[in-house]
Structures are given as C-alpha cells and as structure tokens.
Amino acid sequence: MPRKTDGIPFELQPGPIKDDEGNPFLYAKPVVKYKYDLDAFASYCAKENTRTKGEMLYYLSVFKDAAIQLLKEGNRVETPFGSFAPKLKLRGRHTDADKVKGRDVEYSGVEFIPSKEFVEKANCSRHGFRTTKIKAMTWIEITNAEYIDGYKMFLLFNDGQKRVFDFLPLIEQYPVFKPLHDLTLFKAFTITDTLEWDNGNIDIAPEYIYENGMKA
Known about the structure:
This protein is of the alpha+beta class. It has helices at residues 38-49, 53-72, 116-121, 168-173, 183-187, 206-212; strands at 3-4, 10-18, 24-30, 77-79, 82-90, 105-114, 142-147, 152-157, 162-166, 190-191, 195-197, 202-204, 214-215.
C-alpha cells in the first residue's frame, strides 16, 4: 500500500472486513520515522531538560525497575503520563465465581491507560488530521459476553460499559461472517480481548461493537 506524506506520515493496510465485492476495507497506521530506544530517548530527554544523558538513563532505569517490582506484586502504577497495571485473563467461560480457581486465571501482559492530559498533548491535529473526542482508554476490550437470542449478544467492556449488539446485519453483509449463520457456531464463541469463533479464524474489532452497539 502507498505511503502518504500529507500531515504526519501514514500508510494504508487492508483490514479483515470486506465489502460486497470482496475488497477489504482499509485502515490507517502511522509510519514510524525513528524508533527511540532507551539510549536515544535518554539523549532526547537530556537535550530538552538540561540534564546529562547519564542522569536520564539512571532515572529511567530506576523507574523501570520500581514499576516492574510493583506490577509483579499486583499493584497499579500511576504516572503523569498514564497508569500501568497487570492484565489478567479468565480462561474459559464461567458463571459460578466459587468454582473459579487460581489456575483459571492467567497473566496476559501489562495494561497501559494514558492520562487525558498525555493524550491531549500528544495529539497530531496540528499536522492536519481530524480528531475525535479524546478518551482515556488506549484500547477497548470485551471482558464478558452472553448470548441473548437470535444473533444478539450482551457484552461487557473493560471500562464497565455494556452493549447489546445484533450481529445479523454483519453476517448478512460481509462474507467473513457468513459462517456465523450457523447458530451452533455463533454460540460457540470464545473471549480473548474480543469475540472469536472457529479457533480464531473469525473475530471482530471490539471498538466496532463498542461504538455501534446499543447501550445497556
């Protein structure tokens, strides 16, 4: 896909959802001009804040080691640019909390939620891009889902929001979702950070359900 240079550089990539003629809808992703490793980032910080590079490397190292230790103990670490917290996932589908054991819960990474001020100051609207209402979440995840009837589901998201979503229009419009006409397959979903079917061969962006579902 061609790269664009008007405004901040970006490139277009084909997405998983296709139109009626089988053409994938595109999504935009930034073109990384330069990747700042710790050494380069320390140099940049030193230049901008009249500190030596050695000082900045020391501060960053102390922050990293302290944050790692606190996260390993299950804590949330609040910083001026956002908060870090352990990210957990419940394996399988459960309805009885008393039957959930420690082995059913797995560590799946670190969740980062940027502060509103950090997101606002880092926005690139000055480069000619349109902006939407800024949200504090970096990403939206589905944490629970329940089948209602037909092709409708009740969904709970990681920010506490709830939605009721009817999948039938997607199933009828997009070939990738056609197999979900089979209600047996439709009901056999799994929850990762979104909904998946058929061992991950079919999934849907949680943001789409979040934005287009009916609030519950």
